[in-house]
Amino acid sequence: MAKQINVALIGNPNTGKTSVFNILTGLQQKVGNYPGITVEKKQGNCKLNRNLKAHIIDLPGTYSLNASSLDENVVIELLLNKNDKDYPDVAVVIADIENLKRNLLLFTQVKDLGIPSILVINMADRMKRKAITLDIEKLEKDLNTKIALVSCRKNIGFDKLKDLIINYKLLSKEACVNASVIAPEYFERLRKAFPNEDQYKLWLVITHDISFGKLDRNIIKGEVPFRTKSIGNLKRLKQKETIVRYQFINKVLKETLIIDKEQAKDLRAKLDRVLTHKVWGYVIFFSILFVIFQAIFDWSTYPMDFIDRSFSSLSEWLKNTLPSGQFTNLITEGVIPGLGGIVIFIPQIAFLFLFISILEESGYMSRVVFLMDRIMRRFGLSGKSVVPLVSGTACAIPAIMATRNIENWKERLITILVTPFTTCSARLPVYLIIIALVIPEGRVLGILSYQGLTLLGLYFLGFGSAILAAYTLDKYLHVKGKSFFVIEMPNYKLPMAKNVLITVLEKTKAFVFGAGKIILAISIILWVLASYGPGDFNNAEKIIQEQTVSQNLSQEEVDIKIASFKLEHSYIGIAGKAIEPAVRPLGYDWKIGIALISSFAAREVFVGTLATIYSVGNGDEETIKNRMAGEVNPVLGTPLFNMASGVSLLLFYAFAMQCMSTLAIVKRETNSWRWPLWQLISMTAVAYVVALAAYQLLK
Amino acid sequence: MTSIASLKIGQRAIIKDFSVEVVPLKLLEMGCLPGNEVTLIQAAPYSDPLYLTINGSHLAIRKEMASKIEIELING
Question: Is A288 helix (H, G, I), strand (E, B) or coil?
């Protein structure tokens, strides 16, 4: 069997670390979570030669080994813990040729931990255009390491990198910067107390407490009783360490790196002049947003219609093919419509992640943060809240995780709390089906459709309420936190198709399987509840026959009456009737009530639930939409889904906090039940009041 | 005091001094250290935030932080 070694990819954000990972592992990668936290853990395998396999971990991007966020903390915990099963045999530190100076800071820290380290300098294909020359041999000697020059775009240099990994045992483990010069006496005492431990590692363990918090794992045996220095003192020493490192780096680069500024072609400056312009910057940003929404509203309706039709034909086909019985009913009335309710999301989710990953990859997202910071701050948010709010249109869960790079806790908390107001893709099927039912077709001036405009309006409503909620929270929330903001403005890059595709694939997969499990479980439960019942349910045929004996109805009409009687007297019907008084003022019947309740697990369940409820005992191959259009309000005798009840439903879904997964993630990120509960109660209360007002006014 | 906040677009300067208590380690690590060169590339409306190059790194910080970092202008 081939031997396996652990390889850790480490690097600053925006160095192309993930591109290197994608090239080394191809599609053989696995994305999961670190146990107990929501930091994404990416790992994959790479066959180096016949006898050696590499298990590669793509660690979260970090600027240094001084953690200030959960993601960065993962890097430090792994590198300090020799007992971790993922502890690297070799560290591959990735640097970008244009930011070599800053990227080397992290490299020197990793190397000083005594981990065999390889330096990868990425985007080597840019060197000529940027008029950069680098003396690799001398740099290797000065840093006491091996260097691989690579270009992910042109797939150059990876054989060399693999060679270096194979021969990792030849790498020097010596430190390149002696950190102990910042406080020689103190470090000497550390050395005496822990003769077997690396001094720099001890230093990181001691200072980690002040920068981030206690390390989880028992990394060093015994206590470290050397917090003899005050926090202020340690902070000053940390600063001194950074200065010492930069002095070393500057000296090394002075002799090895030459940049001919005269020759360098600077596309960045030209692009920035337009893209961060006080007027044009905003015009361009809003145009891009418009294109994104156009894609979601318009372009994705074609594949979605196709999926909707395919699933109803599949269900029909199975019904005719499989032997009839309860099992077939479960499949065709519970599982298939439920699954259809998930699969129909794929086009929209994919479009959203496609755009978001293109904006991130190209470097444009940072410009948006820059442009929006001042405006967002007025509402208690940060420029960095734009990314979560835009990602929130795909799904609130990754969006809330994306708030981690907001330095100020108050701004971050507010962003977490208001993100679920943005129109996530789970609301989309609900919106689309209700809009199709109640908003007339036709176009304003022959261009913009009424239905499209309504959807656009709902998106604005989502953003608007998020902003308004943030403004209110900013006024009344008293949270202490340092105000601080820094964002790197990376150079523009043409997004690499492979990276974008992998992101879209991963995110879509995660969403479909994550939401899929819940939806499938709920559709099966609903089907069971709708197909069985107590008392009268079991005598439905007899009761209806007795009632209709004098009415001279055809067999078909009697069957329909039986089916609807059964549904009303099933367990779900009883539950629905019980909550009907609460939802009737909003214009809903008990079936919508059931869909509403089950939506608290996840919004997208709404359509699936109605599909399940309506398809029980209703055999024709109609689409969900047609079935809903045929529903009649039992009191008024008018179509159940009309303008008033439709608008009321749209508003309810716009405001209500109906997503268990989001609540769970908010609990994890804020470390308390207080905030998710606050969201659940206040958002749902707002939803009820607004929906009530809308129905009563429009009715 | 002349600070980064008083730079005009395109102007270059050398970072002189600041207090450790107000400037976070992260900014230091990104290259904001005494003696390094800083250039203002672009300013958002109301001159906030500011888009700078410091020590060859491109980054943006808020005006509030920028006003706490003392500089000396480079002539020419």
Answer: helix
**DSSP state string for A366-388:** HHHHHHHHHHHHTTT--GGGHHH
- Residues from chain A contacting residue B54 (CB–CB below 8 Å): none
Q: What share of chain A is helix, strand, coil (3-state, %, to 5)?
A: 65, 10, 30
pLDDT grade, residue A224 (50/70/90)?
A: low
Structural domain boundaries enclosing A97? 3-259
Q: List the CATH number of the domain containing A214.
A: 3.40.50.300
Q: Is the Cβ–Cβ distance between A617 and A566 less than 8 Å? A: yes
Cβ atoms of residues A308 and A623 within 8 Å: yes
Instruction: List, for residues A239-294, the tens digit of each pLDDT value.
Output: 899 999 999 999 999 999 888 877 766 788 899 999 999 999 999 999 998 888 77
| Helix (H/G/I), strand (E/B), else coil: A224 | coil
In-domain check, residue A684? no
Parallel, antiparallel or unpaired: strands B70-73 and B57-61: unpaired
In a domain, A97, yes or no: yes
The count of domains in chain A is: 1
Structure-model confidence comparison of residues A500 and A526, the more confident one? A500
Left if phi > 0, otherwise alpha if psi is -120 to 50, otherwise beta: which for A310? alpha
Q: Which CATH class is domain B4-73?
A: mainly beta
List residues bridging with A208 in a β-sheet: none
Give residue limits of the domains in chain B: 4-73
> How much is the average pLDDT of A123-149?
89
Beta strand pairing status for A90-96 and A117-122? Answer: parallel
Q: Using H for helix, E for strand and C for coil, what is the string for A550-567?
A: CCCCCHHHHHHHHHHHHH
Neighbours of A402 (CB within 10 A): 21
Of residues A68, A101, A487, nearest to B59 (C-beta):
A487
Rounded Cα distance between A508 and A32, Å, is 14
- Share above pLDDT 90 across residues of chain A, in percent, rounded to a whole number: 35
pLDDT digits (tens, 9 = 90+) for B26-45: 899 999 988 899 999 999 99
- Contacts with A, B 12-71, CB within 8 Å: 20-21, 24-31, 33, 41-42, 44-46, 48-49, 51, 55-62, 64-65
Model pTM above 0.90: no
